Amino acid sequence: MNIEKNSNDLLMPAEWEKHSATQLHWPSNVETWPDERLQRVEKVYLKIIKSLSDFEQILLLVENNEVLSRVLKLFKAEGIDDKNVLIKVYPINDVWARDCGPIFVKDGNSFMITNWEYNAWGEKYPPWDSDNTIPEFISELFGIKKVSTKMVLEGGSIDVNGVGDLLTTESVLLNPNRNPGMSKDEIEHNLKNYLGVENIIWLKSGLAGDDTDGHIDDLTRFLNEETVLTMVCEDENDINYKALQENLAILQSATLKNGGKLNIETLPLPKTKIEGTTVDGSEFVPASYANFYVANGCVLVPLYDERYDQQALDLFKKYFPDREIIGIDCADLVWGQGSIHCITQQLYGTDEY
Fold it and tell me: Quick check: is 242 in a domain?
């Protein structure tokens, strides 16, 4: 069902509000995960699925029947009970469910899908055409109405507190590789119109090695309606130091929709320089504790650096005391230039069908 008329009553919920399921894509793209990298990232996925399925349903998309057979064998070997995992064969291009998956909004007492365009972060990694059809597929699968926006937007480029405030970056949303014919005012209009936000906080740029051009979910995320976690660098010589300091200064002067100032928590950026290079030749990966995922009864926290991992876990325990805090070693996952938040997308309304 496609809704052509926009509604002023739409509102994107905060991630900590109850989901009906989490969307994941099983890794099978050998260009993203060459050679032994594929098996290594599969192990990370198994840990994530085993942890997450204890708390909520999972919609797992797999590329084809051959991959499905492998997944079922791995589930059995790992003792994963698939009763909470709905597996669907779909010709996915890659794993980044956050960016190509449906962005849900509240529509009165129900939920609706906002269907944005996806072009693999400025047409960097073809093909992306199948991933771009996933919101429509999920809309039809569960009978959930949708509205098509005709604007390129990835889920990892925005973060909301559920009461009208949104975080994003200029380096992504104003990048000419996304919506070259749109002005900043036009982009803001669409965010407000389709997501129901009233106040947009624009940070500048992202991390070195982030091939998305600087997604907000590697930089700064809401922990509650008035609190954000933002990453900082302790080393002034670090390649990311200047950009993170600039973003911090913006947050310190920012105002929320309600007129209040942000409560700001910081965590040190883990080591981002790697040995060798990634597939696209980068010496850096966007390793960040901001790439956490808040599920119904838990928070999945990416771990990278023993100097700071416990500090990160303690911070999430402080802000999510009623959820289990689960650390996941994500060194192999982030080598593909994304982490836990990048591969997950929360779904709503799917438990009614």
Answer: no
pLDDT level of residue 8 (50, 70, 90 thresholds): low
Task: Tell me the DSSP string of 115-159.
Answer: EEE--HHHHTSS--TTGGGHHHHHHHHHT--EEEEEEE--GGG-E
pLDDT at 292 over 60: yes
Q: Each residue of 97-109: pLDDT tens digit?
A: 999 999 999 998 8
> Is 342 among the catalytic positions?
yes
pLDDT for 281 equals: 85
CATH code at 301? 3.75.10.10
Angle at 198 between CA 193 and CA 201, to 5 degrees: 115
Percent of residues, the chain, with pLDDT higher than 70: 97
281 is in which domain, residue-wise? 10-155+227-236+263-352
The radius of gyration of the chain from alpha carbons, rounded to an integer in Å, stands at 19
- pLDDT higher than 80, residue 4: no
What H or E segment, with its residue span, contains residue 77? helix 65-78
Q: And the tokens for 151?
A: 């604007």
Distance CA 229, CA 266 (A): 6
At 277 the pLDDT is 87
Question: Could you tell me which of 60, 53, 72 has the C-alpha nearest to residue 27?
Answer: 60
d(CA 334, CA 222): 21
Which pair of tokens denotes residue 219?
């930089």
Sheet holding 159-160, edge to edge: 159-160, 165-169, 199-203
Catalytic residue among 100, 233, 298, 342: 342
| Structural domain total, the chain | 1
Among 253, 231, 247, 227, CA closest to 165: 227
Q: Is residue 195 part of a domain?
A: no
| Predicted confidence band of residue 278 (pLDDT cuts 50, 70, 90) | confident
For residue 115, being part of any structural domain is answered with yes
Domain assignment present for 80:
yes
The answer to whether the peptide bond before residue 321 is cis (omega within 30 degrees of 0) is no
Q: Tell me, what's the pLDDT at 3?
A: 41
